[in-house]
């Protein structure tokens, strides 16, 4: 149990700086998810906290102690790797016990702690098996067990679910969350999957090109993205972006007048678009494809100006003919405005 | 499947006939050597040579093992065994460590060292035999086990093989061990060594036979019959000038010289094949 603090943390490989100064304060017991596209530096950041990469500049603190120069084993952390990194020649028991053995714990204590972790993860009957005799989900559990037995202050997860199939991923996601709650341990979790980020995080960090674009609670980030990048990255299908000039429906002038000055782009979430009569519309387009998902339907529209829009409506797409002109509007409160640099303009 | 069905009948017999003929051609000299080691000297010298075992098997082998021609064959077998084991184990130990250093540590001149090791591939014993002899002689290693073993221990091939294997071991494994608190040598002993054991076994078989079959180097460096290895010792048994060759004993020695490599291959075959075809991950 510990806080984690990052102060202006930077990483350079040779002359290229890949992490441009990250500040982050993580409270004790908090679940932080770092999310971003591949190559945004999220794994590098995690590995700096783990001590597997050196910190080029700035400071990493775990429990108020500066750990920049501390070896991973002395940082009081445990890490779960993407490919599990289980020792192939050791049994499940030995895999989990290895760290404790090196630490020179008494045999009885090791056995007890490994069995407790195995019970928690439903691995008791597999303790004598080798990793290759286990399924992907079980290997994942062993990797988590190896982290748990060490009773670390901080859990680090490096895309732990990306090697699992979709169904198992959902199940393990819930298990990870439950486990973290139960142990009350601080967790730092890296993923490129925004669904994992939304569901697991107490707070999420959206990273892009070595910068933290936004830090906040998942729903906060979803509702009020700080930049166009965050708005486009979080949410599936992504937010629709338009220039103010694209709003040309009958009701557009009133909406345009309400936009804050300096608006260079506006963003509307697919679920905020609704079908309205022509006289109340701010936008129009024609339905190109509809994807009926059962509970909801995604409609991809083509606009005369050439862009495409996505809207999400509840239920099935009855009554929407292909290529029929559709008139759309969105409540002014749901429309996000962005300036020329792509930063959100917060109405004052 | 169709091909297999056709093979029944004449095709099958012809295939087997071909195989049996091949085996016979290869095995016949060995058979002759075995026959020659079970008969008496006059029987060998008088043509035609016998093709069936004689009755002097025990006597000939006892003569060879306990008295030999220059030195008892038991002594030469022991020398060869020490040399082959020393070379095989020494090569494995050194190349494991150097591959570990090259793959897992970033130190100045790492590439230079790698290429230096790699270069020695181009310099087999025969090419550097004169300078190597000079060095061994100045160290006073003539007629000694270290002299037989050390110059042959450095091995680029084995280093290269382990390097390639270590490169296939995922980096996360080393990182997980680091997080678990394993220092580098602990990681090497606890994780890398057990993971390499099939490779080690395969290499041991190859290197043991390599060491056992060394001919030129022992011929140079051992002048006392007590230090002769068996492969070169056979040559030393040939008579010089007008002496009479004791062919039954020489042949018994040849057969004895063949046995240890055969035994090593037989007992390590399972591990050996596994080491060649599968890498455990």
Characterise the protein shown here.
The complex is a heterodimer of chains A (348) and B (281). With 348 residues, chain A is α+β, with helices and mostly antiparallel strands. Chain A has two domains: 4-233, P-loop containing nucleotide triphosphate hydrolases (Rossmann fold, 3-Layer(aba) Sandwich), CATH 3.40.50.300; 240-338, Nucleic acid-binding proteins (OB fold (Dihydrolipoamide Acetyltransferase, E2P), Beta Barrel). Chain A is built from nine helices and 18 strands. The model of chain A has no long low-confidence stretch (mean pLDDT 89). Chain B has a domain at 77-227 and 258-277: Orthogonal Bundle (MetI-like fold). Chain B starts with a helix and ends with a helix. The interface between A and B is medium-sized, with 24 and 18 residues.
Outline:
The complex is a heterodimer of chains A (348) and B (281). Chain A has 348 residues and is α+β, with helices and mostly antiparallel strands.
The rounded distance between the terminal residues' Cα atoms of chain A is 40 Å
* Rg over CA atoms of chain B: 24 Å
State the CATH topology of the domain at 77-227 and 258-277 in chain B: MetI-like fold
The percentage of residues in β strands of chain B lies in: under 5%
Q: Tell how many strands the DSSP assignment of chain B holds.
A: 0
Radius of gyration of chain A: 24 Å
| CATH architecture descriptor name of the domain at 77-227 and 258-277 in chain B | Orthogonal Bundle
Kindly list the characteristics that best describe this protein.
heterodimer; A: 348 residues; alpha+beta; Rossmann fold; OB fold (Dihydrolipoamide Acetyltransferase, E2P); 2 domains; five-stranded antiparallel β-sheet; 9 helices; elongated; B: 281 residues; mainly alpha; MetI-like fold; 15 helices; 72% helix; globular
Set down the secondary structure blueprint.
The complex is a heterodimer of chains A (348) and B (281).
Chain A: E1 4-13, E2 16-26, E3 31-35, H1 42-50, E4 57-62, E5 65-66, E6 77-80, H2 92-102, H3 107-120, H4 136-149, E7 154-158, H5 166-183, E8 186-191, H6 194-200, E9 203-208, E10 211-216, H7 218-223, H8 228-233, E11 240-242, H9 252-258, E12 265-268, E13 274-275, E14 283-292, E15 296-302, E16 308-314, E17 325-329, E18 336-338
Chain B: H1 2-7, H2 10-36, H3 41-45, H4 57-66, H5 73-104, H6 110-119, H7 129-138, H8 145-149, H9 156-168, H10 171-180, H11 184-195, H12 197-212, H13 216-221, H14 230-237, H15 247-277
